[in-house]
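**User:** Everyone, produce a chain:

**Assistant:**
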Amino acid sequence: MKIEILDEVIACLPKERTLFHYFKGQYAFLLLSIVAKQQHSVSAIKYSPFRSLLNQPQVKTLLACQGNGTLAPELFAHAWNKNSQAFVLTVDKWGKHNHWQYQTTRKGCNLVLQLNFSEQHNRAYQRLVKPEDDYIFNYSSHPVMERKKRTRFRNTLAWARIDFDLNNGEALIEEIQSDWVRRANYCLHSIKHRAEPWFLNLCQCNPEDFVTYMEKIFAPYNSLWSEAMLSATISFIYKELGISNIYYHTHESGGKIKQIYGNSPPRSLYSNLPRKFCFQKTHENPLFLENDRNFKRKKRSLKQVAWYQLKL
């Protein structure tokens, strides 16, 4: 999208930090709190694209207490779990005219939603890992939080890039990614196989302390980061942008459209993850891309373009 439009939207968003709590499986409560505004009974949801959410153990437990089969958004809006992890959400922008370099579907910028660690994590990270640089487990050239842009710096666990069109009421999730997960796990794997990962050259910790960090501090984030990131993204698109028609790239088409060469992202992020969130496969293109000259040129080179779509 044009940077002028993106700047205007960002100027309208909350300026202070936004706290976000997430526990494993919470996405089901988020989606059901939205769906229940239109579907007021369990039986109606059973015949909808959201029926798999009813099989979540925590949802089953909650519904068992209802008894009458009726649903209300408030029933799912305040779900809580003692294993909930705290995050800080921030927004930024990404991209320029060169959409090949920045891997955007069309020319212009993306809005970036950053999922940042809490101060509780950061204190433990500083104590155990003793980093000498902000970018040990993040790439400085990726859309992560920059210290110079924030009065309160947070390390970024993951981010989502979003393109959207307010006129058509559509949003496209360009990517969900985490450098931290990939690099930290590579470092742990190397240590356990008696190799020497270069990342630790930028830390003052010994290998034993890093293993402690990974197994005691980072383990909960490692298992839920992608769920938390997509949940935060859907919630942001729906509540802050007011958009209920959300597209998501497939693994087959996304890489070709964004012209990603070399190391491709994990397939599960563009297959298992959107399906878990009830996205449906479609060959219907977002309307805001249909009139985009560059997208139409890319589309001609592909036999068929596939997307995931979530209609809330």
Notes: The longest strand covers residues 85-94. The mean pLDDT is 91. Strands lie at 18-22, 85-94, 110-117, 156-165, 170-177, 245-249, 280-282, 307-311.
